[in-house]
Design brief:
alpha+beta; 2 helices; rod-shaped
Length: 69
């Protein structure tokens, strides 16, 4: 019976180790998700008269019109 118990304990410890491994891999997921929601990109027309800023998914966040060059 002791050998069976030792085998079960060893199996449980391997399981615990795999759970810790998963936890370690996903520890930074929340921070990465937050950074992605803050992602921005801007582009301007060649003459500088229009600048558009987009966010995640390509949502237009701002359009700025100026006199250009």
């Amino acid at each position: 019976m002791s050998a069976e118990f030792d085998q079960v304990v060893a199996e449980f410890r391997r399981f615990e180790a795999s759970i810790r491994n998963v936890d370690d891999r996903f520890a930074g997921l929340g921070a990465m998700r937050q950074k992605l929601t803050e992602l921005r990109a801007s582009a301007s027309s060649p003459d500088g008269g229009v600048t558009a800023t987009t966010g995640p998914g390509g949502a237009v966040l701002d359009v700025e019109f100026t006199a250009g060059r």
